[in-house]
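Our consortium's second objective concerns turning raw sequence data into structural hypotheses that experimental partners can test. To show how far this objective has progressed, the report includes one record in full. It was chosen at random from the queue rather than selected for favorable results. The single chain below, 116 residues long, was entered without modification.
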Amino acid sequence: MPTADVSLLHGTLDGLILKALSWGPRHGYGVARWIKETSRDALLIEDRALYLSLHRVEERGWVEAEWGYSENNRKAKFYRLTSAGHRQLAAERERLTDYAKAIVRVFNAPAWQVGK
């Protein structure tokens, strides 16, 4: 079944990355794969956007990184959540959940509410 083109809103990718890392350390490709599979292929992350976001969350102290080897025995940078990252994940979960609920309310609003 083809999926719709779903573009991520600015700031959403950071939260998704934090969630992907809440299950343990992952390299960049593993983060993107987890998001893709968990969203049932609805969210496809471009490499450039992924690595810009990973560097951003690392600069903010939400993740730490170290070099290791992937399951294919390739050198890769593995990211893991810090304590600050766990706190930020909780904040992002609340912010994005509230945002999603607001979008659903707008789409489910009866016609009589239009213009009032």
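The partners drew two points from this record. The chain has a mean pLDDT of 89. The helical segments are 12-21, 28-38, 47-59, 83-107. Both points have been shared with the crystallography group to help prioritize constructs.
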